[in-house]
Amino acid sequence: MSTSSLLSIEEAASQLGIMPSSMLGYVRSGHIKGEHLGRGRWAVSQRSIDKYIAGMVYKKRPVVVQPDDPTIRLIPLTKGRVAVVDAEDYARISAHLWWAHRAGKHRDTWYACRTILFPGGGKKNISLHHAVLGFTPHGCREIGHINRDGLDCRKANLRVTSRRRDCFNRQPQMHCESKFKGVFRDAAIRRRGLWRARIYYRKRHICLGTFETEEAAAHAYDAAARKYFGKFAYLNFPDEVPA
Known about the structure:
The chain is an alpha+beta fold. It has helices at 9-16, 20-29, 46-58, 87-93, 128-132, 163-168, 187-190, 214-229; strands at 6-8, 35-38, 41-45, 72-76, 82-86, 99-102, 110-117, 123-127, 143-145, 158-160, 183-184, 195-201, 204-211. The protein is elongated and about 75 Å long.
């Protein structure tokens, strides 16, 4: 192949919206076919780039356009999703391929993960938010996303927590009768057009009362969540100032 038909690592990286160091890693690992020009120099054909982009589209991993904000960068994932990281973490994070993982069929929360292969055999998955904070697969701690967006992995949105406290901040389940967390109604009160509110705290459900409207029950849950969970609470009306 003529060298005139080849792209430099920098030119190829600009087409994919990634760092040149990440592009070099893709070529050396065989993810993108390249040509060794000697003395540590590599080049990539336009055909190889087009083939890789086609493969990303097939796997629904989008080719992202980086935002104008210089403080954040986007990481393409499978299933057509993207993750957000701080610009200072972009070089080391984008050097790997990440995939999207949904946290349960009843929750609309997604996380970014990748698989790490260990010398001598064995592999283990690691989440993007753990990698951002420098944790290894064997030393991970529970990490919570303050805004409950599992793909927003900026350091300002991450906090080390516990499984119990992270559940306090969990969104309501999908496909429930009420769109609000802690609000429900059984057959007895459904006939009367009423709603109930309850909160789960220290391994028991606490009944908060019966209400005429769904919104009134949601406000009752918010008041209890502030009392029991503090800053870790998920609120149905986060913008409202408590009385």
